[in-house]
Amino acid sequence: MPQQDNANLYAFYQNAFPADRSTTLLTTVTGNTFSYADAERCSAQIANCLLNLGAQIGDRVTVQVEKSPEALCLYLACLRAGLVFHPLNTAYQANELEFFLTNAEPTIVVCDGKGEELLSSLAPKPRVKQVLTLNSDGSGSLMEGAAECSGTLDPVARKGDDLAALLYSSGTTGQPKGIMLTHANLASNTATLVKAWDFTEQDCLLHALPIFHVHGLFVALGCVLGSGASMRWLDRFDTKDVLASLPGCTVMMGVPTYYTRLLATPAFDRASCESVRLFISGSAPLLADTFAEFEQRTGHAILERYGMTETSMNTSNPLQGERRPGTVGMPLPGVDLRVVDGEQQELPPGEPGDLQVRGPNVFPGYWRLPDKTAEDFTADGYFNTGDQAVIDADGYVSIVGRAKDMIISGGLNIYPKEIELLLDDMDGVAECAVIGVPHPDFGESVVAIIVPAASGAPDAESVVSYARRQLANFKVPKQVHFVDELPRNAMGKVQKKLLRERYSAAD
Ligand code: MLC
Ligand code: AMP
Question: pLDDT digits over 66-105, tens only?
């Protein structure tokens, strides 16, 4: 297939790479640099290594590794080889991992050396041909194998609707769902964002986000790779490192917690962001107060945008023009948004309802869940986001609520049902409800309200350590309360709104 007909996302990125491949792609906190040529060679070597191990086009590669330049190359390698990249949050524990490995049925698993024993024991055989290791310093069996392989490979021919990535989100039933993202979904959204935010080879992005979620992986990396820009590459968000790395950067992306943490640092001022042209926020609501304080401190109006894993980015405040606090801006070009009532009737501007989206950015469906997919799409092809919104007369969209029972903490989604199912199984727990309450650092934090069994209640500490053993750390309740009964409505449904009001002020 001639290159221009190849819808492989890597080929799309490659078209935007600087002509001079010795141009820096990224600089780490310790000053190591990685050029576009390095990324091309390294990702080809990894791709050839995975193919030599027997991975076939369309096979999943499950990845649970720390952020590193080599981890970025592993993502690029999967695209290049036509393999489906399946990244996992490094905080996931054994029983969470077991589900993902069983459900995604990968052929290859790549993990940190520390997780090798666990992942090898969980990997379903004979489907998983190999468990490879990749440590944060780039050591491990993956790079040892890759070093023996060729550093060139034409991106494998892919059609637009072929899968590029599989990312899971838990759901209101507590059972995670695989979200299938195609090469065309990701390429179209990347092209839209590069244009909307005017990314060019002159830009340098401060990249402190994890690369196992949409924000750090497709939005941030996409804008860089899709424009030939460069990055300051931070392993994680650390305020000190961010302050030291900002000079020289032109764009920063982050979840609202990143911006509130910067504001909590007195040394962060106008001078810290002299080279920056744009601060972008997403993944969780940016409070109007944070927007105002940031503008006052730095002179920058943070640009807020809105998206989700299923759709990548849907709306953005304008690069030129008014960025309205409390809104997520207007639909991006090519993205159709509408707000509907309970009868699926489109509502006029100013009326809140369920937000639906249609466009080339929208995923084709959930992995092996055709019924769930059918349930979440309308007959005319709109996806129900589960968010409630209002669109004002000027076209600005505000997210005003969520139909889905979900907590967003530090930009990470947490589904109460998953924690409730777990705690309900604990000795001494008759039933429980899990809610999110406002939190100054994380935006929202997890609170568990427990009705003890007649046999006697566990103490709060044992509830927390029980949860910690089985859940990723960010899902562990930050507060535990005990009550005699949960408030219910006439239908018997727990009144979470009441609980949120009651426990919002509690420590
Ligand atoms: C860490 N902790 C959290 C947490 N992250 N608690 C609640 N919510 C979180 N998000 C807890 C840990 O359990 C631990 O608790 C303690 O904080 C310290 O852990 P840490 O790893 O050192 O924390 P830190 O590095 O400070 O991480 C916080 C953070 C990070 C906000 C910097 O969570 C982060 O980078 N979030 C961004 C997530 C993201 O990329 N979201 C985008 C999703 S894509 P203990 O008790 O164990 O000590 C998406 C689509 C879209 O939503 O639109 O973009
Ligand atoms: P995820 O499942 O991680 O992709 O999270 C997507 C969800 O995060 C959306 O459905 C929204 O509920 C929320 N979200 C993302 N960006 C914003 C934003 N700017 N404001 C409010 N909510 C947001």
Answer: 999 999 999 999 999 999 999 999 999 998 999 999 999 9
Report CA(114)–ligand 2 centroid distance (Å). Answer: 32
**Dihedral over alpha carbons 454, 456, 461, 462 (to 10 degrees):** -90
Distance (Å) from CA 282 to ligand 1 centroid:
14
CB count, 10 Å around CB of 165? 27
Across 149-286, where does the E strand assignment appear?
Answer: 163-169, 177-182, 204-207, 230-233, 251-254, 278-281
Tell me the ligand closest to 253's alpha carbon. Answer: 1
Q: Which two tokens stand for residue 506?
A: 């509690």
CA of 50 to the centre of ligand 1 (A): 31
CATH H superfamily, domain 9-196: ANL, N-terminal domain (3.40.50.12780)
Per-residue pLDDT, averaged over 302-312, amounts to 98
pLDDT in tens, 278-288: 999 999 999 99
Give the residue among 148, 181, 223 at the shortest CA–CA distance from 78: 181
243: Cα within 13 Å, side-chain hemisphere: 14
What pLDDT is stored for residue 12 in this prediction? 98
**Whether residue 126 has a cis bond before it, omega within 30° of 0:** yes
- Six-digit token pair at 270? 């106008």
Identify the H or E element spanning 299: none
CATH topology of domain 407-503: GMP Synthetase; Chain A, domain 3 (3.30.300)
Pocket flag, ligand 2, residue 308 (CB < 6 Å):
yes
Domain locations in the chain?
9-196, 237-402, 407-503
Can you tell me which atom of ligand 1 is nearest the CA of 210? 40
Vertex 281 angle, CA 253 and 12, to 5°: 50
Ligand at shortest distance from the CA of 242: 1
Token pair for residue 331? 């639909």
> What value does the CA radius of gyration of the chain take, rounded to a whole number of Å?
23
> Nearest ligand to the C-alpha of residue 208?
1
The mean pLDDT of 338-360, rounded to a whole number, is 97
Ligand 2, atom nearest to 214 Cα: 4
Equal CATH topology for 237-402 and 407-503:
no
Å from CA of 83 to ligand 1 middle: 28
- Contacting residues for 38 by C-beta, under 8 A, at least 6 apart: 25, 69
State the CATH class of domain 237-402: alpha beta
